[in-house]
Amino acid sequence: MNSRHKGSMYNKFPIKDTLVILVSLVGIVILIFMVKYSKDRERIEQKELLETSSNNTTLDKIPLSKALSLVSINEVNQSGWIELYNKDRCSDVELSNCYITVNGEKKYTFPASDILEHGKYSCVDGLGKLGVSEHDIIGVYNENGEDLKNLLVPSLKTDESYGCKQDGDISYGYVTSSKGKTNNKSDNIARNELNFSVPGGFYNERFQLEIKAGEGDKIYYTLDGSDPTKESQVYDKPILIENKSGSNIKYATLDGMEYLNYYKPSSITMGVIVRAMAVNSQGKSSEIKTQSYFVGIKDASDMKNMSVLSIVSDPKDLFDYFDGIYVSGSSHEEALAKGEDGGGTANYLNGWEKEAHVEFFEPQKDKTFEGNMLISIIKDISVTQPQKSLLLTANGGAFQGSSLSGYYNNISNQLVVQTNKRDNLYKIREYLVAKLLESTTVGTPDITPCNVFIDGEYWGGYMLRSEYDEAYIRKHYGLKEDNVLIAVNGKIDKKWEYQKEIDRLYNYIKKHDLKNKKNYEWVKAHMDVQNYLEYFCTNIYLANAEYGQDKLVMWRSINENDKAYNDGKWRFLLPKLDNTMANETASDIATSSINTFLQPGVTNDVIFKSLIKNKEFREQLLEVMTKITNEIFSEEKVNSAITAISELTQKMVESSYKRFIGIPGYSFYKDEINKIENFFHERKNYILRYTKELIN
Q1: In whole angstroms, how large is the CA radius of gyration of the chain?
Q2: In CA terms, which of 81, 275, 608, 634 is 20 to 30 Å from 432?
Q3: Which InterPro entries does the annotation name (predicted)?
Q4: Closest by CA position to 459, among listed 423, 417, 431, 430
Q5: Which residues pair with 139 in a beta bridge?
Q6: Are 276 and 221 in contact (CB under 8 A)?
Q7: How far apart are CA 252 and CA 386, in angstroms?
Q8: Cross-strand bridge partners of residue 151
Q9: 42: burial class by Cβ within 10 Å (0-12, 13-18, 19+)?
Q10: What do you get for the CA distance between the two ends of the chain, in Å?
Q11: Which residue from 213, 212, 215, 217 is spatially nearest to 239, judged by alpha carbons?
Q12: 263 with 286: CB under 8 angstroms?
């Protein structure tokens, strides 16, 4: 029996299989040896590398533009110096040719090959007294002028510092000076005022916010945007600031918002709004302090490289049935109750102004403006839509050194936060035109895309839009503001004593035959005809469906010394151009093939009707239209500009669409881009023909 058993074993493992097993075992032993040798060798190489590194001063060097999270503006001192700190423990940061600004003025440029070593400080002196005004903006730029970092500095007392409470931390406050040394051992300077431990801004991780006030003061706060009162939550422990995005929506789905197709968002991006006030032992309340916090969304695709405007107003002032300016509300229903149509009555049409607190964050998400303003609704094409255009007004303008100052200044004292009107779904047409016309003399509004939050809730993508005012002319044409006349629809507003100047031009054009060379020369002496043609041909080429319907804005210098734009000649600024370039909202009036010369806005244009009679003007018209066709609006330039704009704004556009309309289709954005590109591809085949027919 045992022999039979042994025999069966041998049958199962013949000599051939036994050899295979032995070879396999040998292979496994060799493999184990190789792995052990490899690991030993790796340990030896790591040891050699560490020994080499300890004797080698050359470490990884990262340009500042790639290391923004590593470097902080660690301390700012009233006497005129700032301190940068590299909180990384491995990498040095290149500061070569970067420069420091104070309130927009360049103050210091780092030498070539300047390095901020890991864990070290770099101090910059000689910046002038800092913290003298209510707000100073410290800016750090690279050699290409790219805005890398900003710090909004409050007013400072003599030799006082404002900086990180711990080196490189998010907590800022008043501290004792520690120039070139760690802030960790600095003393915090208490002030008898309401103070937040962390300034409003964008942060990667949640944190605890502390609020302090004068000794014995009681602090009340809210987290829903409402004004705090003595009945609000009492502050008795730090407040957790975290990402609140999701479905816990308070305002975006309220009644009376004129929803498109009854669509209401089920989930949106949200921040945390902290509003606080302090009450002293005598019962006196402090001013309300407001800060906006956004956690975990800084690098989201729809936020990246995009400025952000946070508008905070007591919700009842915006959304209340009786008092809210953003809803149809009682005004609309009262009209209906009276048997009226109600189409022209709503709270948002009443022109009411409400108080608001506004914070502006640069594209890299550093704050460069905060202040109290008045908010009202702009009565444009979007006024009956869920996303409305907003007007923010206050005296003083934005802080110098903030990019917001290009759109909000101390002349108009207002900030236009505008939907893209008839191009609001795609938000590209006017922005594209502004980019393409940079090399011409015709003025286009300064506009920039911006994400907006209202009471902490994402309110979609908007355009910040500059006013055509004296500051605009100074910026683009170099004239002093007191040397500028601006006429809107033939009327001069601010310097009314010069009304006769625009009247004289209009009257001469109407009453004189411009076929006559002498008469035409008079017009050329008083109006920049080349500028007018660039203005006119741009409107015609783009098939502006509303040409002649928008405000006609003209400007000139008061002085007349024949130098550049200081020659006293009238020039033209473009109207809104949202209903152009094959926009479907224009029906068939903005197609690539349409003869825009036949539109009533053109045929009723007094200036054009008179000028077209002159042969020299007609020849120049063809020259300018040809140049616009072949150069200014060449397909290469158009496609390049569209690509750059799309890279910046597409995700914002899609998020804004999702916020107000619904989930966009896969090709939603690309289809519209293709339509605009096709417009320019086809337009040249028609517009030169129409121009030649006209002048002949």
Answers
A1: 33
A2: 608
A3: Fn3_assoc_repeat (IPR026876), Spore_coat_CotH_CotH2/3/7 (IPR014867)
A4: 417
A5: 101, 150
A6: yes
A7: 9
A8: 138
A9: exposed
A10: 121
A11: 212
A12: no
| φ/ψ (deg, to 5) at 374 | -105, 140
Answer whether 565's CB lies under 8 Å from 477's CB.
yes
Q: Which helix (H) or strand (E) holds 53?
A: helix 15-54
Of residues 447, 495, 472, the one with CA closest to residue 573: 472
Determine whether 383 is exposed, middle or buried from the number of CB atoms within 10 Å of its CB (0-12, 13-18, 19+).
middle
Residues with Cβ within 8 Å of 105's Cβ and at least 6 positions away in sequence, in order, are 400, 401
How much is the pLDDT for 59? 58
- Amino acid of residue 164: C
Q: Where are the alpha helices (H) located in 297-408, listed in sequence order?
A: 315-319, 329-337
- Round to whole Å and give the CA distance between 410 and 403: 14
Report residue 494 as tokens. Answer: 């601010």
Contact 103, 131 (CB under 8 A): no
Question: What is the CATH architecture of 57-189?
Answer: Sandwich (2.60)
- The SS3 of residue 347 is helix
Distance (Å, whole) CA 44 – CA 42:
5
Residue 655's Cα: distance from chain center in Å?
15
pLDDT in tens, 586-606: 778 999 999 999 999 999 999
- Print burial letters for 230-244: b (CB count within 10 Å at least 16), e (below 16): eebeebeeebebebb
Asked whether residue 414 carries a pLDDT value surpassing 70, the answer given is yes
| Amino acid 474: pLDDT | 96
Domain ranges of the chain: 2-54, 57-189, 479-641+680-695
Q: Which amino acid is at 446?
A: D
Report which of 330, 347, 357 is spatially closest to residue 276, judged by C-alpha positions: 357
Is residue 141 within 8 A of residue 101, CB to CB? The reply is yes
d(CA 268, CA 534): 43
> What is the pTM (predicted TM-score) of this model?
0.89
Contact 365, 201 (CB under 8 A): yes
Q: Where are the beta strands (DSSP E) in 606-655?
A: none
Q: Looking at the predicted structure, is the pLDDT value of residue 25 above 70? A: no
Contact 252, 265 (CB under 8 A): yes
For 154, 362, 403, the CA distances from 369, given in Å and listed in that order, are 11, 9, 9
Residue 308's identity, in one-letter code, is V
In this structure, how many other beta carbons lie within 10 angstroms of the beta carbon of residue 54?
8
Q: Tokens 């616009």 — which residue?
A: 628
Instruction: Tell me: pLDDT of 218 over 90.
Output: yes
**Residue 352: closest CA among 378, 376, 318:** 376
Whether 20 shows a pLDDT value over 60: the answer reads no
Which residues lie below 8 Å from residue 398, measured CB to CB, with a gap of 6+?
Answer: 360, 368, 369, 404, 405, 407, 408, 409, 415
Whether residue 102 is predicted with pLDDT greater than 90 in this model: the reply is yes
